[in-house]
Amino acid sequence: MEPVKAIEMKGICKAFGSVMANEDVDLTVYNGEVHALLGENGAGKSTLVNILSGIYRQDRGTVSVYGKEVNFTSPKDSIEMGIGMIHQHFKLVDVMTARQNIALGKGKGLFMKNKQLTREIRAISDQYWLDVDPDKKVYNMSVGEKQTLEIIKVLYRGAKILVLDEPTAVLTPQEIRRLFKIIRSMRDNGCAVVIITHKLGEVMEISDRITVLRKGRSVGTVKTSEVQVPTLIEMMVGKKVDLAIKKEKTEKEKETLLEVDNLYVTSSDQKSSLSGISFSLHAGEILGVAGVAGSGQKELCETIAGLTRAEKGRIFFEGENIIGKTPRDIIRLGIRMGFIPEDRLGMGLVGAMDIVHNLILKDYQNQPGIFLKRAACEAKAKSIVEKLDIQTPGVHYPIKKLSGGNIQKVLLGREIDSDPKVLITAYPARGLDIGASYKIYDLLNEQKKKGVGILFVGEDLDVLMDLCDRIMVLCMGRITGIVDPDEVTKEQIGLLMTGGKEGLAHDQI
Amino acid sequence: MEGFLAATVIASMPLLLATIGEIITEKAGLLNLGVEGLMLMGAIMGFVVGFETGNPWLGILGAILAGAAGSLIFAFLTVTLRANQVVTGLTLTIFGTGFASFMGKSYVGLVVPQEIKDFFAKVHFPLLGDIPFIGPVFFRQDVFAYFGYVLVAVTAIYFYRTRQGLNLKAVGESAASADASGINVTLYKYVHTCVGGALCGLGGAYMSLVMMSVWVENVVAGRGWIAVALVIFASWNPIKAFIGAFLFGGLSILGFRLQSMGIHISQYWVDMLPYAATIVIIILSSRKNKKENQPPEDLGNAYFREER
Questions:
Q1: Residues B236-245: what's their mean pLDDT?
Q2: How far is the C-alpha of B178 from the C-alpha of B183, rounded, in Å?
Q3: A127 and A44 assigned to the same domain
Q4: ipTM score of the complex?
Q5: How many Å is the maximal CA-CA distance in chain A?
Q6: Which residues of chain B make contact with A93, given a CB cutoff of 8 A?
Q7: Same structural domain for residues A202 and A302?
Q8: Whose CA, among A9, A407, A460, B221, lies 20 to 30 Å from A29?
Q9: Cβ neighbours of residue B82 under 8 Å, at least 6 residues apart?
Q10: Is residue B181 part of a domain?
Q11: Contacts of A95 in chain B (CB under 8 A)
C-alpha cells in the first residue's frame, strides 16, 4: 500500500525584499516517517516550515495536507489541519505555568477547567513518555523541559504532523537522546515528523528520508539508508569539503600563560554567577569551555577581559595579577577577546562603520597625536580581508551589510592581527555555514601553533571535542570538570554540563 | 473620619476607572499614554450629551463612545500601522485636551441638569449600607461607585479565571507565542484597547458630571497621568488598583480636610502631594523584581508576524 502523503509542498517561492528565501522548493512527507530538512544557514529551511505553520505566506506554490490543498492565512489554520510547529525560539509565555501555556488559544467556554485540563495533559504525557509538571512556571524550566512542554502543547492541539525547527541546538546529549526517543514513538504512532537541523550525525541517526536545501532551492530528497555523509555535505555545500578538524599536538614546553585562582563573580542572573573558578591556560593550547548556555561563560570571558568586576579571586597573566586593571591595560598586555553574542553584532564591532574604522577602534590608542593614521589601518584592513578571504566590496563598506560569517571573520581577524598572547573567543562559529566554520577553526589552530593560549567557548560538543586540547565544563557558574577530550565520551561531558561529578563517576562504573 | 473616607471613595472613582482601563489596555501589550486625553474626551462628551438631552444614560453612553473612539484611533495607528506607541499616546493626550477645550468653549460654567444630579445622587445600599463604618464609607454612594466595585471584581475574574483572560495575558506577554497558539492577536489588541479607552472616558465623565457637576476647563487635571502611574503601582492587578486609587483619592482631598480642621499648610504643598507620591511610588515599585509583578513583556512592541 502506498503510504499516505501527510504534506506535499510544490514549487514554493518566498521572497523577503530582494532576497529569495525559497525558490521552487518541493517537499513531500509521508505518514509514519521522520523527514529531515538539511541545509546550511540561510538555505531557507526555516522559511519553508514557517510557510507550513502559517507564519509566512508563500508568494507562489501550493501546500497540500493529507492530499487536500490548503491556503493558510494564520497559524490557527495550520493548527486546525493538524500541523504542530516547535519553533527554534520557543513560543512560550514565561510568566505562565505549563498548563496555562498548553491551554492558550484552545478550548471553549468562559472559565478555565483546570482539573480536566490536567487529566488531558497526563493522558498525552503517558502515551508519549513525556513528563512535565503542569504547575511549573516556564521561567523556572530548563531548555529541555520547555521543549517537552512545546511538544505536549502541539499534541494537545491534536497535531499529527510535527515540525521541529533546530530542536537539538540547545540541548545536552542526554536531552537529545530523550528527544529522539519521543520522535520515534511519535513516528510509531503514525505521525509524520519533519526535523530541521544542520548536524549531520543527528540526521543520519533519526531520519528516514532527507531533503536537502541549498540557497533557497531544493537539491534533492534521498533515503537515509542509501546515502553517505560526504554525499550529503556535497549536496548541502555544492562542493566537496574536507571536514576533519586537525588537532595538532604542540610539543612546546607548556608555559602557563593565564592562571585563574578561586574566582567569584556575581551576576544579575543567579545561574550564571561564577563561584570558585580555578584553572590555568597554557601557551599553545586550546582550552575549550563547554556548558549549557548561560552557565557563566560570558561572565568568565568578561572578567578576564576586565569588563566585569570580580568579587573575589585572582587572575594571573604571566605571573602578574590583572584583577582591577582596566580593559585597556589588559588589551595592552596582549589578552584579546572576541565574543560573538547571539545577535552577532552586539559586542566588539560597530555595524555602521567600515572595516578600517573598526580596526582603528582598538588601535587608535597606540597612535601618537590627535589625528588618526588611516593609511596604515587601511593597509592592515586589506591584508586581513585577503588573508581571511572576507567577502566584501571593499574595506570601506559598512560591516553590518556583510553576511554573518564575514562579520565574524572581521572580528576574529582584528584580534588575531594584534598578535595576542591569549585569545578568548566565544562562539566564533555561531551561525556560520560549514565552510566558514572550518576556516575559523583553521585560524585558531594556526594561532595555537604560534604559541597563543586560546580559551574557546563553544556550544557544539562535537567541535569542542575535535578542536580542544582540554575541555573545561561549566554548570551553574561552577567548574564540574576539566577533561581530556580523547578520554571521555560526549555523554560524560553532557552529564557534567547538567549535574556534576556524580554523573561522571556513575557512568564509568 | 467616616466622612473623609466616604469623600475619598468619590475622589478615587475617576482614578479607578482610568487605571483599570489602562491595565486592560496594557495587558494586551499596548502602552497607551493618551489616558489624560481620553478622560477629557469622555468628560466633555459626557457633559455635552448629558446637558443637551438631560438623560444620564445618554451622557454615559456619550462618554463611553468618546473614549472608545479615541482609543480606536490609537489602536489603528499602533496595531495596524505599527506606529510608535509612546509618541502616539502623547499625541492622543494633546488631541484630547484640545478637543475638550474646543467642544467645551460654550459650556464653561454651565451646570448639569437636575435629572442627572438626581440620577447620581447617593443611594443607601440595602443591608450593606447599615454595616457600621463600612456601610457609610462604601455603601452610601452614587451608582458610579457601585459600578466601580463591580468593575474591579469582574476584571479580576476575567484576568485570572477565564480563558479569554489567559489569552489576553499571552498577547501582552508574547504576541508571537499567542499568535503561534492560534490566538487572534490583532483582534485582542483592538477590543481591549477600546474597552480600556471607554473606561477612561467614563472616568472623565465622572469628573464632569458627578464630582464637579459643572463644566470647567481641563477638568481632569492630570488624573490621567496618575492613572498611568497607578498601573505600575498596582502591578497590573485590578484589586491593587482599587487600593492605589483609594490612596491617591485620599491624598487629593487631604488639603481641604486639613484646612477645615484648622491646620494650615500651604495649599501648594498639599496640591503637590499626589504627584510627589506618584514619583515615590514609581521609584519604589521599580525595585520590586518578582517576575509576576513585571510589566507585560511585550508592552510597547508592535507585532508583525513576518518580521525576521
A1: 94
A2: 5
A3: yes
A4: 0.87
A5: 82
A6: 169-170, 173-174, 177-178
A7: no
A8: A460
A9: B302, B304
A10: yes
A11: 169, 173, 291-292, 294, 297
